[in-house]
Specification:
Helix content is about 45%, strand content about 25%. By secondary structure, the chain is of the alpha/beta class. Pfam families: RuvX.
């Protein structure tokens, strides 16, 4: 089996999480400057097999698209052109940032550590991936 890779896409940073090869465990991988995301993915996919991209889908409370969707859609088009054989699936990402901060609090991280937005993005990507795995 190949891995599943989840992205919490942001205009500045993108959190990345990945499963193990058996697709049982979701783990945070890293946070990457969004401008460098495609080159990071090219490098990662040269070393690891990925069978699915999960991309967070930010929605408003009334289920309409979030403002950030206008940045995500062009990225998805580039991703499809770059990796045409890997399917892309969207996952509702409402509340993942809040849940990520709560996870950090629950794990005992100090306030200064919880202000690390890159870590919040990575944990958010992990939560997106976990929610997908639970739904399978």
């Amino acid at each position: 089996m190949a891995r599943i890779l989840a992205l919490d896409f942001g205009t500045k940073r993108t959190g990345i999480a990945v499963t193990d090869e058996l697709q049982i465990i979701a783990s945070g991988l890293t946070t990457v400057n969004t401008k460098e995301l495609l080159s990071f993915l090219k490098d990662y996919l040269s070393k690891e097999q990925v069978e699915l991209f999960l991309i967070g889908e930010p929605k408003q409370m009334d289920n309409t698209e979030s403002e950030s969707e206008k940045y995500i859609k062009p990225f998805i088009e580039k991703l499809q052109k770059e990796f045409p054989k890997i399917p892309i699936q969207r996952v509702d990402e409402r509340f993942t940032s809040k849940m990520a901060v709560q996870t950090m609090i629950d794990s005992g991280l100090k306030k200064k550590q919880r202000q690390n937005k890159a870590l919040v993005d990575e944990i958010s990507a992990t939560l997106i991936l976990q929610s997908y795995l639970y739904s399978k």
